[in-house]
Amino acid sequence: MSTRPTILCLASYHKGQRFLVRCRPEGWSCILLTIESLLGEDWPRDQIDEVFALPSFADRPALLRAVSYLNRTRDIQRIVGLDDFDVEVAGDLREHLRLPGFNASTARRFRDKLAMRQTACDLGVRVPEFTGLFYHPKVEDFLRRVPPPWLLKPRSEASAAGIRKLHRPEEVWSEIERLGDQQSFFLLEQFIEGDLFHVDSLVHQGRVIFSEVNNYRRPLLEVYQGGGIYATRTFLRNHPLGDRLRQMNERVLTGFGLPWGASHTEFLLGKADGEIYLVETSARVGGANTAEMVEAATGINLWSEWAAIELRGETYQLPPTKSDYAGVVVSLAKQEWPDSSPFDDPEVVYRLKMKQHIGLVVASSSPQRIEELLDDYRRRIARDYTLVLPPADKVSH
């Protein structure tokens, strides 16, 4: 058995390969704990010391027992949750084994959308009007005070999954009735029209040391609700709004108590009032090829640098960065394995290899060129590749 310190990486979704391959060069043994259905995925097994799997991570006592058993013969000194759903699990395990990093209570601020909003209010960070689905008279008061439409959100899903946009009180009460005993795991929120941004960050010793501001062309909520093509890109550098978003992002991450790691935080710029609202934050790398886009624009791979921060501790230093522009476009595809070779512009730096999906990352020193390419690629993907699905509110649940 290795005498090197060991990091345990939890992955209930197939992601984080660049994190995994960074561990061994940093002098650490790496154990991957995943779920049985993902054992056949192309994990970088030549860079991972051991791989284990459970049927799921849902049985928390069984998970605690399994990891504690591994710890008998392996010097586990760090635990990391690679997917959004693994953040709270990792917090529980750290508390159980008394390991460094944030605990389950802190993890909840980065997973539970209701806890996020309450914490933001305590910090003086603006959020849309919201209410938990606990005491029904308070819900009635919310519906009277706050004009529609409203968003019904699961408190602990990832990104835009499970969000429903509702326009009439009777729709809200119908949904609440449908949820039954699950309604307390949801919240109701005011819908605010505006532009959506995401700030992708690295935190070291409680301080934001890297933050990249990006602006959605087509946010995931719109794609979930109405289908279509997801796209985002680097926001204009040296724009005053970018500075405001970075300052707000730092206020959120330091106030929420992220000691170190990576974060994907979303903000809304209200169309009517020009104010910045926190939509959600996280303690993980953003999905939908965000990491590849950020790396193309800055030279910083969020997964790899997160691993180095985790394993080096106080000695970590951020590598030099560049200030180019990048964009990503992703869509469901009608082809099982779509051929992206017709997109042959020299700016293409990454091609998504995923069944029933097409995705590309482009990079350039010119923001105008990124806009041109995203416009062109979205049009061509819609014409030749896109799998048209019914909107989310037409799909049975």
Could you outline the blueprint of secondary structure elements for this entry?
Blueprint (H helix, E strand, L loop, with lengths): L5 E6 L5 H7 L5 E7 L14 E5 L5 H12 L4 E6 L5 H11 L6 H6 L3 H11 L6 E3 L3 H10 L4 E5 L9 E3 L2 H11 L6 E5 L3 E11 L2 E12 L1 H7 L3 E5 L5 H17 L4 E10 L5 E5 L9 H9 L3 H11 L12 E8 L15 E4 L5 E8 L2 H18 L13
Parallel strand pairs: 1-2, 1-4, 2-3
Antiparallel strand pairs: 5-8, 6-7, 6-8, 9-10, 9-12, 10-11, 11-14, 12-13, 14-16, 15-16
Helix pairs in contact: 1-11, 2-3, 5-9
Write a structural description.
- The chain is α+β, with helices and mostly antiparallel strands and 397 residues long.
- It folds into three domains: 6-101, Rossmann fold, CATH 3.40.50; 129-190, Dna Ligase, domain 1 (2-Layer Sandwich); 194-392, 2-Layer Sandwich (D-amino Acid Aminotransferase, Chain A, domain 1).
- It has twelve helices and 16 strands.
- It has helices spanning 17-23, 60-71, 87-97, 104-109, 113-123, 136-145, 169-179, 220-226, 240-256, 290-298, 302-312, 367-384; strands at 6-11, 29-35, 50-54, 76-81, 130-132, 150-154, 164-166, 186-190, 194-204, 207-218, 230-234, 261-270, 276-280, 325-332, 348-351, 357-364.
- An eight-stranded antiparallel sheet has the order 13-12-9-10-11-14-16-15, sandwiched between helices. Strands 3-2-1-4 form a four-stranded parallel sheet.
- A hairpin with a 5-residue loop joins strand 12 (261-270) and strand 13 (276-280).
- Helix 1 (17-23) packs parallel to helix 11 (302-312), helix 2 packs across helix 3 (87-97) and helix 5 packs across helix 9.
- It is globular, with a radius of gyration of 21 Å.
- 40% of the residues are buried.
